[in-house]
Design goal:
With 110 residues, the chain is mainly beta. It has one helix and seven strands; from the N terminus they run βαββββββ.
Amino acid sequence: MAMPKLADLIDEYNHIKGSITYKLDPKKLFDKTTPEVVFCEKTVGQSYFSLVRNPDFEIVFTYKTGDKTYYSRLDLNSFQPIYDTHLFLSWGPDHCELCWAVTPGCCENF
């Protein structure tokens, strides 16, 4: 069974506030020959989402709502998941968070 695309999990019901646990493709995530990988880029209503692995080898989650933009980053240069490539993404009217889902309570300190 194919995994749904990350963008398909963001819709009119959760674009203002929501959370998703999502498994990224490790081949794309850790391929240093590809400068940038876009996992998701979507606009729903006045909300914009993107999840990108940038050329600096960081995963960047961007959430824009109205005139406010929030970012959360994970540096793949200093940390790589040992067991899995599941990410936890959370967003709301005044925040966005990104962390590895394999670490219990990883997002509580943001």
